[in-house]
Design a protein that fits this description.
Chains A, B: It catalyses: tRNA(His) + L-histidine + ATP = L-histidyl-tRNA(His) + AMP + diphosphate + H(+). The structure is a homodimer. Chain A is of the alpha+beta class. In chain A, about 35% of the residues lie in helices and about 20% in strands. In chain A, helix 5 packs across helix 6 and helix 8 runs antiparallel to helix 9. Chain A is elongated, with a radius of gyration of 27 Å. Strand 3 of chain A pairs antiparallel with strand 3 of chain B.
Chain lengths: ~450, ~450
Amino acid sequence: MSRPRPLSGFPEFTPEQRIVEQHVLDRLRETFELHGFASIETRAVEPLDRLAKQGEIDKEVYVVRRLHADERSADELGLHFDLTVPFARYVLENAHALAFPFRRYQIQKVWRGERPQEGRYREFTQADIDIVDTGTLAAHHDVELPLVTLGALERLHVDLGIPPVLMRVNNRRLAQGFYRGLDIDDPAEVLRQVDKIDKIGPDRVVQTLVEQVGLSRAQADACVALAGIASADESFVDAVRALGVRSEELDAGIELLADVVRTAQRYVPGRLVADLKIARGLDYYTGTVYETELVGYEGWGSVSSGGRYESLASDGRTTYPGVGLSIGVTRLLVPLLSRGLIGASRPVPTVVLVAVDSEDARPDSIEVAELLRARGISCEVAPKADKYGKQIRFADRRRIPYVWFPGSGESGEVKDIRTGEQLPADPRRWAPAEEDLRPVVALQP
Amino acid sequence: MSRPRPLSGFPEFTPEQRIVEQHVLDRLRETFELHGFASIETRAVEPLDRLAKQGEIDKEVYVVRRLHADERSADELGLHFDLTVPFARYVLENAHALAFPFRRYQIQKVWRGERPQEGRYREFTQADIDIVDTGTLAAHHDVELPLVTLGALERLHVDLGIPPVLMRVNNRRLAQGFYRGLDIDDPAEVLRQVDKIDKIGPDRVVQTLVEQVGLSRAQADACVALAGIASADESFVDAVRALGVRSEELDAGIELLADVVRTAQRYVPGRLVADLKIARGLDYYTGTVYETELVGYEGWGSVSSGGRYESLASDGRTTYPGVGLSIGVTRLLVPLLSRGLIGASRPVPTVVLVAVDSEDARPDSIEVAELLRARGISCEVAPKADKYGKQIRFADRRRIPYVWFPGSGESGEVKDIRTGEQLPADPRRWAPAEEDLRPVVALQP
């Protein structure tokens, strides 16, 4: 077996990098649970026809079949490419047993057969929250979800040093109501053209709207002006009003978006803006839409996106509307980790290496280790009764902060190998400095 | 989209069942980390040729390919069917960056295309620990691993009410040394026959050893007598000695196994026996072997198995011996969950439902919820400003223990809906009963 090479698009972490990831996932989970979201996991596979329904994405699906299955066996399966399709299926399958509105979070790997490049992976971890109801889903959940997500991302910033984020929010109904107020017949087509504004610039969008979509110059100018509005407070409302367009749907959209901005200003100040050019997922989102960039690393793309679906799932009788936000954990972490921007204080959970005086005395060292573990202190017993200098180097290579030298009976000494300080200690009472108890994750200097 | 049906062999959990699983996984992780094991995760896929090398198992592999890949594309992949093959590959790939002996735990899903039945799944979660070194791996790690695993399983028993376990341990060298001491030429073949003792009984094993393997009746009787020895203490040593066979390898095997039993008696009393008929994984284990049953549910099969590999991996120049134990989390949990033997006190993390007096007053309720969350108390804000009776029923359906009624300013009242007791409370100071802070997992009455 020669040395294997990494598979492009399937990132794997070193133990130290994995500690960073675990810290991130733990904090996401904790935030989601503080907001009453219940965890679910779904199987990795879905029937292929359920995955293939999703328009163009079928190109990227990984098909799964048993090595010795009959050719063209009926039960073809594919790996899920997101957590929304499986969640919709889970809701339908378990609707009788769920209490609605149902709040769930789901942190799992997903797979896409895309061409790998930075920011695009073939296997990656997503952390999704969704709220789904039967019939109708109250509008205030569109306000709630960005608070939860931004709260989670803010903890990553404050606790771990991950860069801060800026979430951009829009409401599909605002744009559609605006277009309808302008007596435009095909709002969806206008939306599609306006979505190109960052790529081709406002002038060419106006040109296309006039020449290809058949808008008047005034209509086209108004549409592009609308897309140019953005604000971190409710001032976007006046800016929209100043364009002089009126419709009921526009009013509804403005009110919803203003509510999001107002609440975010109160609880996650500086982290959310109304940005009226955000379109996202033109085919399925029907109301609020969200996307989120890392401040200073905008080029890495959106690290958290989502929106409202009027019909997340339907069994023909009942429709299940939902609103969801997904954090791209791998997309957030891999660029930071691969550039060495973030790391852990050590690559192991171990706080104390218990030295071994001789192989015959190994049981004494195991005894010390068990006493420390019983008090929540992670230990390893040295693998070999080498000279103490070698055992200290063993700890040092792993950045384990303390080495314990068992004495006779209950006596013993513990050395902080960073300072060299060595003191008598009792494994029933000694505790490390609080900040040494677990590896610390932080931006690297 | 009609109501989908579950896929046989791909178990999924309800939110309540998932809480049980999360409690189990959290405790496994905590125990592994207390013993200094570092977490890694490997990608779900391995090159097919790496998976197919493993003898017969290739029948059960799931092949993965992009939907629109060329027929017979060179880079065929399969889902991993265990965590050992990917770990061996990870060690080879990252050997330059790892410090040996390397201790890792790995908790992930694995996939096998087996015919689904109870105890056999197509997707299931394993929790593995392994210690791997370069060249040689010290024998005391064979003693250490069952302590860690039994410590983890004991926590599941004590904390969550999962039945206790009994681990059966043997050492391949003991049996081989014994056979060699009897001047038997083909110990591997004898081991293969003796392994059938539970299925066909000792008499038929003796018959086969004499008639097919060519042993004398005395040799065959001794082999079967050896397999009949089991003890929870070191008395197995005398029982083996009493059979009158001597060899160096036998002595080495006895000593290793006695060390395991002695240490287990000290730290996990009653949970481990030396059982000299245990064979397991005849093709790859070379020393200590482990298997573990749930006491009272022995028919469910082994919930934790493993052993020592003299060569877990090799790159031609360096050999990496290892010893590992794997806990079958899904195999342990699904029978308990599907029979309703174990459950959680509620299906949501939520401790407090903050009631909403009117939609206009929703910000007051959000404020209370945020104050409680800042102090680690999981909250939801009621989705609708219904009559309070309806909001209480909303909490009751989810077994959320408390409902908060925001008052004017900082006043408010909190009701324990189980007792009906309602008291004034300040969200900056109030705390629930300690046992209500998280869902409690326990055997069901």
